[in-house]
Every structure is written in structure tokens, then in C-alpha cells.
Amino acid sequence: MAPTHILITNDDGIDAFGLRVLEETLRSIDDYRVTVVAPADQQSATSHSLTLTLPLRIIERAPDRFAVTGTPTDTVLVALEKILKNDPPDVVLSGINHGPNMGEDVLYSGTVAAAMEGAMFHIRSYALSLATWHPTDFSGASAFVRRALPEILAFPLEAGSLLNINIPDGPEIAIKGIKVARLGSRVYHDVITDQVDPRGRPFLWIGGHGPTWKEDPDTDYSAVQAGYVAITPLRLDLTNYKVRAQVGALASEGLPGDPWPGCEDYGPGGGAAGGNLPGPTRGGAADGKPGLGHNGIDEGIASS
To answer: What phi-psi label fits residue 66: left (phi over 0), alpha (psi between -120 and 50 degrees) or beta?
Structure first.
């Protein structure tokens, strides 16, 4: 049987220690074949963003190791559509992130977004994070990957779903086990701080103090706090089906109320619109040629 082809990516950048731990651990297992395609630099908290107004470049760092000058989502897209187009991976692993991705953090996380991009391509995808703000010990995470990943990969994933995995910081012996958990909820304090640059000009910095968490049972946070690896299934479909049923009465044929003549100003030829509305879109320019909003990928692969 051919080895499982695993694409490794992250949001901390190709030189991140956590990525190195994951890569070296997987390369030590004969059942896996590894390709690394990761951002060229730090891309934390970029969520599922695409680069639409700058060209992307591929930099070959070593055999089967590539950096991409873009976001985590860019890297997975470039990996699947360019670098590995004729050799697609069986699995996407994003991580190991330097910090937790629990609760609402999954909405900001570039690590989780990279796994989501893999899931959008119908590839089994997983996000892995070391669940502490100041990671010091990836040895337990490495042991978890080596010992638990085969069983995790053998479990079938529903289309459009992925697993978000948070691993306690510390040695293998400190990990009590694995729990399947729901997302917790956290609250940040003083998220935006006021600062002053060397020239005396004020500016804002997003950061603030670390979050506090609601002490709810069965959550990713409570599992990690108790010394367990937390595995949380996520899905691409964000539809709230319960609320959908509740707001069903809003559905109608035609719009409610009387027609509004003023809206014509915002249509083709209207005074406000001017008939031409350029803007960045994933599809590129209206004529199909590269232009504003077209995500150009440098066809040449540079070496470094």
C-alpha cells in the first residue's frame, strides 16, 4: 500500500518550531509521505482570508518544502491547485500552532482556516494547536501525533467537516487522554490598547490581556485544563438550522412594502454608481484578464 500523502501547513510560518515538530514526527513514520507548503512569514489571526490584490510567489526551500507569500488559505489553495495539482494529498494537517485555537478563536484562526480550505477540496483535514499562550514543550504533542494520528485518520469524516485538536503543553506523561469536546466560550479583556510611538503620535494595538473562559463542562477549554487533548468536530456549513426554522415567516414572494424609486440611483447608469464599480473579487476582472482583484500566482518557483 502506498504511504498516505500528507500536506502540512500552518499560520505561524514555514520556520515555526511547531511545524518542524509535526514535520519531523511524520517523516519518522514510514506510512506517511510529507509535503510542506506554508506561509513565508507569520500569518496568525488571518482567518480564511485570500490575497486578492498582490501576486503570490512560491519559494522552494528544500525538496518537498515550499513557502508561499500569502495567507494560510492562500498556501493550501496554491498547494492544491499548483504545487500538488498532479500529486494531490490524502490529508491536510495544519499546525502545530503556537497557542490555543479554542472557542471563538476558531473564527480568527489561520490554522483552522487552512484546514477548512482543505475540507472545501473534500480532503480529510485537521487543525492542531498547542493550547497555551506561551508554549514551551512540544514533546507531548509529538507523542500524540505519533501514537494517536493513525487512529484519528482511520476514522471517516463527513464531507464538509474537519477536526480541531488542542493539545496540552508539556511532556507525554502529563497528557491524561483524549476527550471529544464542544467549543467553549472566552472573553477578552482590554482587547485594544492605546499606545504612543517614538514621535509622540498615538496609535492602537490589538492584544490586551489574555482571555478568561467560561467554566462550562464538556468544552475544549475544560478538557485541556484537565490535562486532556480536546478534539472538536467543526463543519463548513454555518447555517443555524434552528433559527432558520424560527424565521421562516420572513420568507415571501416579492419584497414587502411599497416600491422605492430612490434605489434607482444605485443601479446601472444611476448618478451614485456611475455604471462602473471596480472592486476586488475572487473571480478577477470582468474581462477575465489579470487585474485589480485577480490573484496572480508566480508560475516560476524560486529557490532559497
So the answer is: beta
Please report the sign of the dihedral spanned by the C-alpha atoms of residue 289, residue 293, residue 297, residue 298: positive
Domain encompassing residue 144 = 4-185+214-244
What DSSP string describes 139-195? Answer: HHHHHHHHHHHHHHHHS---TTEEEEEEE-SS-GGG--EEEE-B---EEEES-EEEE
Q: Which CATH number characterizes residue 81's domain?
A: 3.40.1210.10
Question: How far is C-alpha 60 from the geometric centre of its chain's CA atoms?
Answer: 22
The string of pLDDT tens digits covering residues 77-89 is 999 999 999 999 9
Average pLDDT, the chain: 89
At 254-268, the pLDDT tens digits run: 988 888 888 888 777
Which segments in the chain show pLDDT lower than 50? 291-295, 299, 303-304
